[in-house]
Amino acid sequence: MTLSPSDFRKYAPSLPVDQEKAEVRLMAIVITGTFLYNLLETVMYMLTVPTAMVHKVAGLSQIPHSLFVFAGIFIGCALMTVPHFYSLCFAPDKLSRRLPRKLATRATMIASVAWAWLAALAMPLDAGMLPFMYFLNCAGCVIVGLVYGFSLNSQQLRKLSTDETTEAG
Amino acid sequence: MKRQKLVNSLLLLWLCCYSGLLYAAAGMTTAQELMQYDWQSFFMAALAGLLGGFLRTILTLASEKRVVLDILRESWKDCLVAVVGGGIVYLILQALSSLNYFVIPRDVRILLIVGAGFSRGRWLGIVEKGANDLVARGRGIVRGDTPPATVPAPLGKD
Description:
Strand content of chain A: under 5%
Distance between the termini of chain B: 66 Å
Radius of gyration of chain B: 25 Å
Number of strands of chain B: 0
Number of helices of chain A: 6
Order of helices and strands of chain B: HHHHHH
Distance between the termini of chain A: 51 Å
Mean pLDDT of chain B: 79
Oligomer: heterodimer
Mean pLDDT of chain A: 88
Helix content of chain A: over 70%
Largest sheet of chain B: none
């Protein structure tokens, strides 16, 4: 069924509202999902693909069972991101809570340090640009963390400015 | 002998070039010596310091105790401070490992450098102040302000 715009305005019960909010939420879902995918993919390579470079590199550290330490770090980061991802997907009315985003920010910070650590471990392997690729992953984590930090900071700014206006008025 | 001076100076020039050629043939050129330096770990240290600075920016953005009005300015300052701090710690670690007394593992080194970039401790106060001034001046120049006139220091009592 096709309608001309004037007919649509006549017959449609209500125009779609808050479309831009949905768009922003979709972008946020994509960002958070990419971050989660990166973490889980790395964990899968580490634990289940013995020929993968990440598997070798994570085992090079001098701390005992470093492979499982790295896997635990990445799994912990993924678990810390899950509440924010859940509220993005299924509970958008709870997105104004700060704690899930704060947890996700911490997760990005921890993951970026872990990637830098992996890059340092990969350097003596002489495997081409592998350390710098790990640093690219680290940069991706940092960018996601900056996105979350920007969101938290602007929410705080909005809240403070509305408080001031209510006090003045 | 005619043109004694010219012959002598040409002889000196030849000697200089000859000794230089011998030196070059025996050892390495400056470029080769520079290439032998561990540039990869140097760049890695710079990147790790930058990472520490970005982590500090993220933490400042996420904290409730501080509101960041100008995010770009904050991150510029953090990055400058972090690069300087990471460089200082890199030099200290190089010096310590050149003692050949103990071995600092590579991953511990990079974590220390990240921590140095992340820490905005008292030991970097002067650097932070300088970075603040530098960022403010750069932004002023971009905005088109005239740079502040320097006031000459008084030369003692008249």
